[in-house]
Every structure is written in C-alpha cells, then in structure tokens.
Write a structure and sequence with these properties.
With about 280 residues, this protein is an all-alpha fold. About 70% of the residues lie in helices and about 0% in strands. It has a domain at about 25-160 and about 175-215.
Amino acid sequence: MSAPESADICEDNVAVIEPESGWRILDTKELAHYRDLFFFLVFRDIKVLYAQTVLGFSWAILNPLIQVVVFTIIFGRVAGIETDGIPYALFSTVAIVPWTYMSNAMSTGSTSLVTGQAMLGKIYFPRIIFPVTPILAKLVDFAISIVLIIAVMIYYGVWPSVNLLLLPLFVLMMIAVPLGISLWLSALAIRYRDVKFAMPFVIRMLIYSAPIVYTATAIPESWRFVYSLNPIVGVIEGYRACLLGTEIPWQFILPGIFTSTVLVFGGLLYFHRKEKVFVDVI
C-alpha cells in the first residue's frame, strides 16, 4: 500500500505550467508569489555593479560629472548654446543625471533576457522579472547621483520652488520610459540579436533627440508637438522645471506622458504575447 500512497502524494504536488492564450497586461498574483526571487535579482545587480572597483559607487557621480564637464566646455563655452539665462553647467547637470539613468537602464534592460538565458531555460518564473530588474537596480545609481545636482545647485545659489512637489510625477515618467522600451526590445532581442549591437548607436542618437544639450524652445514651433511625443523630452523639461523653478512646460510634458504610457502598456502586452516562445527560440 505504501507505493500507491507515495505516488498519490507525488501527483498531488505536481504543478503543471501551461502558456495562457490571449492578451494580458500583467499577472500580479504570480509576481507576488516570486517576489523573493525578484528582490534577490535586484540586490544581486546592485552588489555586482561596482564589485572589485577601487572607487565603487563613486562612479555613479563620476559618470554624469564627466559628461557635464565635457558638455559645458563644448556646448556651453565653444558653441555658446543659449540656455534661457541658466548657467550651462547647471542646465546640463539637471538633464544629464536622469538621462544617465534612462540610458543605462535601457541598455541593460533591452538585453536582459539574452544575458540571462542560462537561467531562463532551467526553471520557470515570470520572465518579466528580467527586464524589470535593471530598471530598479539602476535607481541606486540615480539616487547617488542626485548629490551632483544638489552640489551644483548650491554652487550657483539656486533653490527649487513649489514645482518640486511635482517631481515624483517625473521620476515615475523617468522609470516608465526605459521600462517600456526594455519590455519591447528584450522580447525582440530573443529572436533578433541585432538589438544588442544597435542599442549603443541608438543611445548615442537619443541624447540629441531630447533637450539635454540645448533648450526645447530652440525647436521650431510647428514641430514642437511631434518633438514632444518623445517622452524623454517631457522628463528632462519636467526635471528642469521642478529643480530650477522655471515655468512648467506642459506642452512638452503631456504628449510625453501619453507616449510613455503607451510604451509601457504596449510593452507589457507584447512581452506576454511572446513569453511562451522565449525558451524555444533562445
């Protein structure tokens, strides 16, 4: 009698995982079930980010600082780009810090499934954990680099206004942009490895598609709506308005909010649609 009983016990403890049909946004219950794995992967990425480096987390400040110095010399002094009366070092710092987060998160998140393929084919867990992990892990770098913004603001004697209350909105928007792009591109990268090689080029081009080294008002008025559909524009302009106390340019921000929302929800739908073939294709 013991053998059949043990067989019954084994059958009762077998979990059958089957792909679901149709379109779905997100299975929050499943994510909650695997939350320990999710937190472990996030903390792992944070711990190994600057492992065996001499300067450690100081690189989170040095990376944007070097860009600020280069941009200030080239675009501020040599090219003499107009910044609406804001010192160029301050003008660029407020933009480069969120841009550095978004570019690093996009670059890592877009190839997260390919780099994690060894783990992907061995056990089951929600695959969406892969592209979301670097989005959260890179927030540590961003939090540290905020020190750079504070230091430059103190140096120039600039203090934020009541607009600072809107900063959480632009932080969420800043997270949504790389999240949406990573969901789309990580799913595409499974089949098309060109994504890995194209991303460095795309990142270099994107920095000039947003008002990081120039002002958004430099764009001809007839093109401003199309230009503002780039969600990075809304993030950068929102940060400047919140931290420097300038007028909030909703004409650049609202279209970007719409685009970033479409990116995230569309990315979730597409990622789920392709999730069931990841292991077969990779």
